[in-house]
Design goal:
Strand content: 25-35%
Number of strands: 9
Shape: globular
Strand order of the largest sheet: 1-5-4-3-2
Largest sheet: 5 strands, antiparallel
Structural class: alpha+beta
Length: about 240
């Protein structure tokens, strides 16, 4: 005769087996060996940036009159970018750390026409409040070639000086504004995905700071002729 303890154990095992069957528990098989991440080149560390050697940080653009306002309303996007490029080149001294050397050559194509002429690489300025103070910032871009551009955002400070609060170089697949957010969409090495960088105003640095970096689906455009094997995002 089986002891009460043996009977209880058998009942417990049967109940467990029944639960496993009802819940559909199955073995996942060999999941492989888990390996800890391996750090490459531990002994290498980049030097910290020197004073003023961080492209994209906030900087006052010298030599510009205060815009009519409020905010950047009335400011000439081409004049602002031209003054910013000239100031950065003077500080950069040809090192290429603060500004792409192509910027000066490209902006020299602009004429004195209101829109800069047909070959001017500065995009029309867009006004939008990004700092949340009820006054518009100026958003524009300088196209360095047929693919790479420099996105630039400017604000006016309380003393009337115009300051650059964002400058970033990249392949601008799309630029979007919503409320106080500025989203930059760029292609990735995976043609099915696109990188989305979300920038918001940071009062501490007085600049637009990266808030979030995500990946989004990138459906291909079919009605625009592209070279063989290439795809472009639909948004």
């Amino acid at each position: 005769m089986r002891s009460p303890h043996a009977l209880a154990l058998a009942a417990l095992l049967a109940a467990t087996a029944g639960c496993a069957d009802v819940e559909g528990l199955r073995s996942s098989g060999d999941l492989g060996t888990v390996h800890a991440p391996k750090t490459l080149w531990k002994e290498y560390r980049p030097d910290p940036p020197g004073p003023g050697q961080q492209p994209g940080t906030a900087a006052v653009v010298p030599g510009l009159p205060a815009p009519e306002g409020p905010g950047m309303r009335g400011a000439d996007a081409l004049a602002v970018v031209r003054a910013d490029v000239a100031a950065a080149l003077a500080e950069d001294k040809g090192s290429g750390r603060l500004i792409d050397p192509r910027a000066a050559r490209r902006i020299a194509l602009c004429t004195q026409a209101v829109d800069g002429g047909p070959y001017c690489p500065v995009r029309p300025g867009v006004l939008h409040d990004l700092t949340g103070d009820g006054k518009d910032e100026l958003i524009t871009a300088l196209d360095l070639d047929g693919r790479v551009s420099e996105l630039r955002v400017y604000t006016v400070r309380d003393d009337g000086r115009i300051a650059r609060i964002l400058a970033r170089r990249g392949v601008l697949e799309g630029v979007e504004v919503a409320a106080e957010h500025l989203a930059v969409r760029e292609p990735t090495s995976n043609p099915a995905s696109i990188s989305v960088s979300d920038y918001v105003w940071d009062p501490a640095t007085r600049s637009m700071s990266l808030n979030q970096l995500t990946l989004d689906d990138c459906p291909a455009i079919t009605d625009v002729p592209l070279s063989e094997g290439r795809a472009r995002c639909a948004r």
